[in-house]
Specification:
The complex is a heterodimer of chains A (233) and B (303).
Chain A: E1 3-6, H1 9-15, E2 21-27, H2 30-33, H3 39-51, E3 55-62, H4 68-76, H5 79-84, E4 87-91, H6 94-103, E5 108-110, E6 112-115, H7 146-149, H8 176-186, H9 209-212, H10 215-232
Parallel strand pairs in A: 2-3, 2-4, 4-5
Antiparallel strand pairs in A: 1-6
Helix pairs in contact in A: 4-6
Chain B: H1 3-9, E1 13-18, H2 27-35, E2 42-45, H3 57-66, E3 71-75, H4 82-94, E4 99-102, H5 124-135, E5 153-158, H6 166-178, E6 182-187, H7 191-200, E7 208-213, H8 218-227, H9 235-253, H10 260-276, E8 282-286, H11 294-300
Parallel strand pairs in B: 1-2, 1-8, 2-3, 3-4, 4-5, 5-6, 6-7, 7-8
Helix pairs in contact in B: 4-5, 5-6, 8-9, 9-10, 10-11
Classes of the chains: A alpha/beta (233), B alpha/beta (303).
Chain lengths: 233, 303
């Protein structure tokens, strides 16, 4: 789940300056769930564009725009309308916008901002967040991630900032390390805080080639391979 | 005498902080430091205090060192990654700076560049580990140094008034294990609370200097109670400052000298120092712009 919000109309019109015809791509995934690219809000966007003197050549709804293969396939069905347009406006997360740009050789404008949610939240959106750090510390911290729960991503305990259990950065946010302490204390495991785990290794967060070949990347590679085999034949 | 030697040889050690300027005129900070000559065992220089951009602690410490004063370099982890922090530790050493106080640092959103990228690659504990590693001859990645900063003297902080205080104590133990050889604390205004804290950390065998922030007004005390984590100014002290403020107002109306607040502030700090003296290895003064009153505080405390 990537959370997004719509950009203001003025900013979008700024992108479209000098262009009259625009094709709109609206994602039916996360950003629809965020009330940015669902049917109702997409229609609103189209109306705002038209009221501003722009001509909308068509709208494509794409199930999960971030799935670049599916995205290209869906846009293929609207090729005439896409070709007619000067540019595309995409209501999707940053990944979806990049997928559209990868599929279409035309200017692609973002209609949204993807909002940092302090880490990946799993496919079912909920409180626990994962920074995908590559070296899980949840055993040490009682099942609460210090990287996403602490504003400073501290690994060795609370800073001097929390007041009444709240973070110095935002008084409406609970201090992650107070949560960790209370959790460990309730489990009778506060002594875990005497441990000093190894320093965080940011190299583990680099999307290296090997990691890119996992899951969806693997599927894309499989898609590409038959052609290669054909030409070998 | 070095700060380290003072902690070894003296019953009660005084340190005081100075703050570098937001600009390039160093006269004021150097004058404040000069006032402390012979009166304190070490002069802390804050590192972009309250996340506000200004002259670096290292440049200021280097100037104090050249003047024969004993600087304590404060280093926070907010603005530099592990390469820059280790490099600065080595650089400080080459400039003659030996004492380093390792802190995590306030978040950038609390300062004057809230849009900046906060770093926090290391924190207070891992900065101590990094510094201890350099003393032991290797950097954080395990690479050997060609020569080592043998006499680095490392310190850390703790907030005795934190609620709950237990997480602070766990972390304090880790700081000492990581290499801290002295501790300076967040501001203390309530001696009984500090006494309880000292009982809880009786197994910590490095010297602890209790922090003292000069109270400038009742308003400042109320502000700290509401906004500064782990700082608690008791009501009777607030009343003392408030009464002094009223006397100043009356004096001004009569066209007389209005120095009650300053006198009361000095008296409160001196009283705290006398109260803390039997409990710990010394005090660390944080005058926050009232550096020129520090000599009077020390005299009044009988030091």
């Amino acid at each position: 789940m990537i959370a997004s919000e719509r950009k203001p109309l003025e900013e979008i019109l700024g992108y479209l300056d000098g262009e009259n015809k625009v094709f709109v791509v609206a994602c039916d995934g996360c950003s629809a769930g965020c009330g940015v690219s669902d049917q109702e809000h997409t229609a609103e966007m189209v109306k705002e564009l038209e009221d501003s003197g722009k001509s909308v050549t068509g709208v494509a709804r794409v199930e999960m725009t971030c799935n670049s293969g599916l995205c290209a396939l869906m846009l293929d069905q609207h090729l005439a309308q896409v070709n007619e347009a000067d540019s595309l406006l995409v209501l999707a997360c940053g990944a979806g916008i990049q997928a559209v740009a990868g599929a279409i050789q035309k200017p692609v404008h973002p209609g949204t901002n993807s909002v940092y949610s302090g880490g990946f939240q799993g496919l079912w959106r909920s409180e626990p967040r994962c920074a995908e750090c590559g070296n899980c510390m949840l055993d040490y911290t009682g099942g609460i991630c210090p990287y996403t729960a602490c504003s400073k991503s501290l690994l060795y305990g609370s800073c001097g900032g929390p007041m009444d259990g709240k973070c110095e950065v935002d008084q409406s946010v609970e201090c992650g390390w107070m949560r960790i302490y209370e959790r460990l204390e309730s489990l009778g495991k506060a002594d875990r805080l005497k441990d000093m785990p190894p320093l965080r290794n940011f190299k583990q967060m680099l999307p290296v080639g090997e990691q890119r070949r996992s899951s969806l990347w693997a599927l894309e590679l499989m898609d590409a391979e038959p052609e290669a085999q054909e030409s070998d034949d | 005498m070095t700060f380290k030697e003072a902690l070894q040889n003296e019953d009660f050690v005084i340190t005081c902080e100075v703050a570098p300027p937001k600009g390039v005129d160093m006269d004021h900070v150097l004058e404040e430091a000069e006032l402390l000559r012979g009166r304190v065992a070490g002069i802390n220089v804050t590192d972009l205090q309250a996340a506000a951009m200004r002259v670096s602690s290292l440049a200021t410490c280097s100037m104090l060192k050249q003047k024969g004063l004993e600087p304590i370099l404060q280093m926070v982890c907010r603005d530099r990654n592990r390469l820059a922090l280790q490099s600065e530790l080595l650089s400080a050493y080459t400039l003659g700076v030996r004492n380093v106080l390792c802190l995590t640092g306030d978040h950038v959103v609390l300062g004057d560049h809230p849009e900046a990228k906060p770093v926090f690659d290391l924190d207070s504990v891992s900065l101590l580990q990094a510094a201890q590693g350099l003393i032991d001859g290797h950097d954080l990645a395990g690479n050997e140094l060609e020569s080592t900063p043998d006499d680095l003297f490392l310190g850390a902080i703790v907030t005795p008034g934190a609620d709950p205080v237990e997480p602070q104590i766990y972390k304090l133990h880790n700081k000492v294990r990581a290499g801290a050889k002295f501790i300076q604390t967040q501001a203390v205004y309530d001696v009984p609370t500090f006494e309880k804290f000292m009982e809880k950390v009786s197994d910590i065998d490095v010297p602890i200097l209790a922090g003292i922030v000069l109270l400038k007004s009742a308003g400042m005390a109320r502000y700290m109670n509401a906004n500064v984590a782990g700082v608690f100014v008791p009501d009777d002290l607030i009343k003392e400052m408030s009464d002094a403020g009223k006397k100043d107002k009356e004096a001004k109306e009569r066209g007389e000298k209005a120095d009650h607040k300053v006198k009361t502030s000095i008296e409160i700090a001196a009283r705290l120092i006398r109260g803390l003296r039997p409990l710990c290895a010394g005090v660390h003064l944080m005058p926050l712009g009232w550096g020129h009153h520090v000599p009077a505080v020390l005299e009044s405390a009988g030091i």
